[in-house]
Design brief:
The chain has 2 domains: 126 residues, Aspartate Aminotransferase, domain 1 (Alpha-Beta Complex); 266 residues, Aspartate Aminotransferase, domain 2 (3-Layer(aba) Sandwich), CATH 3.40.640.10. The protein is globular. It is of the alpha/beta class and 434 residues long. The N and C termini lie far apart (46 Å). α5 packs across α9.
Amino acid sequence: MIKKHTDLLEFDQEHLWHPYTSMTNPLPSYLVEHAQGVYLHLASGEQVIDGMSSWWSVVHGYNNPVLNEAIKQQVDKFCHVMFGGLTHKPAIALAEKLIRLTPEGLDKVFLADSGSVAVEVAIKMAIQYQHSKGKANKNKLLTIKNGYHGDTFAAMSVCDPVNGMHQLFSGFITKNYFADAPTIGFDDEFNPNELASIEQQLTNNHENIAALILEPIVQGAGGMKFYHPKFLQGCRTLCDQYEVLLIADEIATGFGRSGKLFACEHANISPDILCLGKALTGGYMTLAATLCTSHVAETISNGEAGVFMHGPTFMANPLACAAANASLDLLIANNWQQQVHAIEQQLKAELLPMSNHRNIADVRVLGAIGVIESKYPVNMAVIQKKFVELGVWIRPFGKLIYIMPPFVITTAELKKLTSAIKAIIDCDQVFNRP
């Protein structure tokens, strides 16, 4: 049994494959002993403020007593039952909450395992829907460049074709249609010509397109870009015009992160299919959901197969559903709008002045998301170590130093995150300058 934290890390580096890392030249990992609130306590003695909410998900902080208790109570009843032919109260309660909270018209709920699977489910729904309408040729997807929708194969097929991290699989991945990404910022003046590329793709290829899939308002891992709500409104109109379904991937933006409970609300539109995940359980358990309209569900159910062709083993896991129910109740009880608004105002005050820094190309803030885009790629190993020394956990990628803190963060804790960023961008050695 390995006990010393240095030996544990050595074993980790030798045997555990972390996401997007090399096994021959691995980046260093930091061993977490415990976590509380917004703090990660490392085995090496440091305590760091988590500026990432563990990839957007831990909105209520770590070791939350409400979420802990919800899971403990469910453990004493049962941890899992198959969802084929059986059901349970946590899943029913969760479906009721999601139908009530999400944009109008989304009243059928498929509970999946993870965000990538939710996207796979949405794509299968769209293709099976068109097939059931006698339009089997409508079996491709349209999306916008700079998007990211997950790491499974169908999800990869709608990630950015150049920067989507999946070029290696291009010979195997299904070829879909890509339109230009929107370039007009969230607060800038909108130009209808922004929709020209999407409209051209639909005009030329709508007979082969089952659905348009996009991340509403915020393009996440594809570049942390925020675009104008009228672009999303235009996409909704064009999908209706060309009889193409609209899939909104709100896995990253759902549950308040963008300043609205769902980013679609910025444009006052409702999609035909909605993907949710990440913050759904407050970061406690892996769980995702794909919602659709009654029309989509009934069309699929009246088609050749007569059923929707998907069924994960751990679908609607009761522990995960219990955590999700508690998390959604806590979101409302904690007044998430006030929490996110306070974070947004502080991020604007403390990050936007950095836009004139010699190493910085752009700074942008929306809701509880703050993005510093540098002029040069960061040296990941160097910058990560310096952030830990400064008492924060921030995980940059490419040219992006960004934070999306837990909603429960205090003003002082958030100030420590933004101060660390300010200190880091002064260190030229953290950037891979030419």
